[in-house]
Amino acid sequence: MIYYLFNYLDRVCDFPGAGMFNYISFRGSAAFLLSLIIALVFGKKIIRFLRRKQIGETVRHLGLAGQEEKAGTPTMGGVIIILATVVPVLLFARLDNIYLVLLLITTLWMGAIGFLDDYIKVFRKNKDGLKGRFKIVGQVGLGLLVGCVLYFSPQVTIREASPERTAVVQAVGGAESAPGEGQERFLQAEEHSTKTTIPFVKNNEFDYAYLISWLGDNYRDWVWLLFIPVVIFIITAVSNGANLTDGIDGLAAGTSAVQASVLGLFAWLSGNIIFADYLNIMYIPDVGELMVFICAFVGALIGFLWYNAYPAQVFMGDTGSLTIGGIIAVLAICVRKELLLPLISGIFLVEALSVMIQVSYFKYTKRKYGQGRRIFLMAPLHHHYQKKGLHESKIVTRFWIISVFLAVLSIVTLKIR
């Protein structure tokens, strides 16, 4: 909203300084600072409200060190993350951007599912919360909406490096032009496409349509039957992975901030025609506006981490964890980096796999030997290390370090291919 006001002042009134709001970098910085302030200032008030209303965490007795002390800690703190993300975005972003609208819908949609789950746990005194099938229905519904918009909307386009560009680069032994040189000459016109990026592969663009090319000449007319289910799977998997990761103080918020920052860098590079040309990567018109959303999101996570770091004053609950997972999944799909998610969101993946492996092995051994056996002392994986005697703050810090390592490795894929 403020963007449109200052844009008007710049065009019509030539108001001094109003032109700064035309720059994504300025609006992103402003969104980050405002979200951080909202999380820090209003977060404290929200925590007091939650404590006053006795909206506290009901802790299951799992035999973990320090578990009993967490009983009664305010939960549903994901509201802080949602509030601190949405308000700056509404103020500083261009609300006519299709990618931004999708991210706002994702935030509120997944937040509503998580809020309902937490409500049932807290007020209905049902530790299981919202039944799993209803969560899946909500996640599938969001995936269906996002997939349809990204496939059918005429505003979702890409521009990729032309064959002439590739020939020139190869002719000079892989040398690249400086930023800004020849981007109009070497980038083709915008096209509606289901292409995405495959990491560590030469000519690293992959079109989902290739998988159904056996259908005949009109195979591209049916690629939505493949693309939309892929989007649904990614959103469901990542949101559940984030939900499983939220088990100890500061783990989900800290690792998610790192992941979102990497996706923000990809959005900025892919949305800038100069850098897209320089790096010889896919240029995605209008996706750079996501930087404003991502800056607000990261600021909200860091601000929330102020209160969620050990010993936590508030838990995000499913209101926060499902929202975080949904946002990261949709961000990756929008910037065409969804196939890089196993690397970017490696922490979420490992946490989810640890649960799947544990449950599958337990059921298998119970059928075979009559008694279930376990691979890990407890799943998800962070509880395994707690059982081994590591303090949760040490576990969280090491998971953060691994997240940074995976983030850097993800960025390296821009050149190693």
Descriptive overview:
With 417 residues, the chain is an all-alpha fold. It has helices at 2-13, 24-52, 78-92, 98-123, 132-152, 163-171, 183-186, 224-245, 251-270, 273-279, 290-308, 317-334, 341-344, 346-369, 381-387, 392-412, and strands at residues 195-197, 205-207. A two-stranded antiparallel ribbon has the order 1-2. A hairpin with a 7-residue loop joins strand 1 and strand 2. Helix 3 packs antiparallel against helix 11, helix 4 runs antiparallel to helix 12 and helix 9 runs antiparallel to helix 11 (290-308). The chain is globular. Residues 166-183 have low confidence and may be disordered.
Short description:
The protein is mostly helical. The chain has helices at residues 2-13, 24-52, 78-92, 98-123, 132-152, 163-171, 183-186, 224-245, 251-270, 273-279, 290-308, 317-334, 341-344, 346-369, 381-387, 392-412, and strands spanning 195-197, 205-207.
